[in-house]
Sequence to fold (305 residues):
Amino acid sequence: MTRFFTVEENGNGSRIDSYLAGELSDISRSGIQKLIKEEWIHVNEKPVKANYRLCFGDRIKVIVPEPKMPEIEPECIYLDILYEDEDIVVVNKPKGMVVHPAPGHYSGTLVNALMYHFGTELSGINGVMRPGIVHRIDMDTTGSLLVCKTDRAHQSLAEQLKCHSIKRIYEAVVHGNLKEDAGTVRAPIGRHPTDRKKMSTHSRQGRPAVTHYRVLQRFGSYTYIQCELETGRTHQIRVHMASIGHPVLGDPVYGPSKVPFKGLQGQTLHAGIIGFIHPRTGEYMEVAAPLPEYFQKLLARLADK
Fold:
């Protein structure tokens, strides 16, 4: 893909990396600097350095090379299978496992494990990087995750996700003592305006998001809650709970930087129940993932305080 820009008066004297960071919202400044270093960016048909100062009328050519697709290999990784038939699989994803390959995580993912256990018996709608994957949960979130074996099943479940008819109930421990026994957070979620790695309820491109929560147990400074998603935005529960002053315990992105309990890694968030219409039978079914051991120990520890 090639893009062209002509520098207007307001860009005169700007560093080229700074200028392009404002023009190319889909590429980070470090990514732009990498393109400059590899001579994919030219000014007036000549390669330049990142500190090049632009002049009014300069013609910029930006070439974004096609990404090289890495080979994703099957890996013998244990899978806790909660349910399986000829169309779908529901797995209990452990803490610390990435769902599908991405930069920095091309091995050890759920997809690597799925490829070993099911081979070509996975839907191909999402391509070679995400075979069988119809939705995902965060690396440090545990619990039930749907995987599709056939394209027909994938299409059915993707449509259910799109119209928000799939039931998804999570359990979490949050900071603070919630005032109400139950409530709903209605706040749009989109990319954070300044931090590309975060989501926010203050984004101009936010999409509608609704989370219903209910208190299960109170521990003074912490509250054990159940959350049901009406929508499924990235980091939805983590963002919504933080937005009302009750971030998920252990969340390194939206919560306090200091972890109050030794050994706690990542957010205490568990995808407990997933309910859906089976793509072949047309009948509603639910699959539940038991609370992981670390979560049970944490609850016992909070109860003893």
